[in-house]
Amino acid sequence: MGYPDFVCLGFQKCGTTTLYAILKQHPQIALCRDVKEPMYYRVPVWHIVCGGTRFYNWRYFGHLQPGDTRLTGEVNAGLTYGGCAKKVSRDMSPDTKLIFMMRNPVDRSYSAYRYFLARGFLPARYIRYDEEHGHAQGFDYYVHSVLDHPGWRGQVMKRQMKYIVLSQSNYATCISEYLEHFDRKNMKFVLFEEFVRDQHAACQEIYEFIGVPDAPEITYNLRSNEGNERAVSPRCAKKLYWVKGLNYLFYDLCGMPYWGPKRYERFRRYFQRVRKECLAPDTDKSKVLPETRAYLMDYFDEEICRTEELTGRALHSVWGGRPAPSSGGAVGLATGAGT
To answer: Which of 175, 7, 176, 29 is nearest to 75 (CA)?
Structure first.
């Protein structure tokens, strides 16, 4: 079958899991088999090691029968930076429809911080500090320790896990990578704030963009992947990080459930035990500190202005910050397909 007709590229913590749950219900859409966010392009050279198109089709669309006319799609919020655009463009058609979901970059970063902190993606010192001071203070400490350090600030868009909280909030930089390989008319930009306000209306626009009709049997008003868990301890967070990595290897990249189901079932039970012992309910409901929000909005301001120019969306009116000087460019881009 080749590669999918459309890909929702992210960004992380912008509603992609909820969109995945909605699209799975559509009778004319077939998503990747049993996995959201395939690691195929996210792990260096894996798509070469696995054998390219043949493996991709077997692992992610092996459930489709010959002659299946459904539209195929992948939802993968991890493909928006780190050189993934170049790898995706080598395989997928330039006519592939690309969907980007964006959110206020400060809120997205804070949500990502809480999620990745609990799962050991960040250095242990941040996990310990957060455990002692709470999420709001912990996030402020993380933000300043990275952005106030000249060397680290320059590394934000690199692939290291240490900077993952901030990397995907630089939307314009990530989108620009895809514009080098794909036409702007084949891109759809969805705002998280609009999506959560009216999921059905937002999805109707997505259906029109990818070319399928609305479906009355779909359930909306879903909430998924809220990240309401915390790490029991820094040691547990790091343990979960490594075991979760093994699960990606066995389940996603190797497709073990399909050739070694009994072996994978034993590992799955172990993985679930580790998750249970390493994660606890997160009762810290603190919000981003006003001073942290102001600091980050200043950091992201230029990026927001560039994103407005690329997408044709008046983002400052939704997210705040300093509006870009009126030149007519952003508004002019808002006409035509993919807006």
So the answer is: 7
* Number of alpha helices (DSSP H) and beta strands (DSSP E) in the chain: 18, 7
Q: Tell me the C-alpha to C-alpha distance, in Å, between residue 319 and each of 129, 156, 338.
A: 29, 21, 21
φ/ψ (deg, to 5) at 281: -60, 140
Label residue 244 left, alpha or beta by phi (over 0 means left) and psi (-120 to 50 means alpha): alpha
Amino acid at 286: S
Q: What separation in angstroms does the CA of 149 have from each of 117, 142, 143, 228?
A: 20, 11, 10, 30
Taking the model in full, what pTM does it have?
0.90
> Which residue do the tokens 């981003």 mark?
288
Q: What is the DSSP string of 198-249?
A: -HHHHHHHHHHHHT----TT-----------EEES-HHHHHHHHHHHHHHII
Q: Are 15 and 103 in contact (CB under 8 A)?
A: yes
The pLDDT of residue 322: 65
40: tokens are 């195929």
226 band by pLDDT with thresholds 50, 70 and 90: low
Question: Residue 266, exposed/middle/buried by CB under 10 A (0-12, 13-18, 19+)?
Answer: exposed
Smallest CA-to-CA distance from 336 within 137, 218, 184, 178 is with 184
Phi then psi dihedrals of residue 188, to 5 deg? -120, 130
Backbone angles phi, psi at 280, to 5 degrees: -135, 160
Amino acid at 259: W
d(CA 219, CA 81): 32
* pLDDT surpassing 60 at residue 330: no
DSSP conformational letter for 168 = T
pLDDT at res. 52? 74
Q: Which residue has the tokens 């029991």?
A: 232
- For residue 105, which amino acid is it? P
Q: In this structure, which amino acid lies at residue 318?
A: V
What would the two tokens of residue 198 be?
A: 């009216």
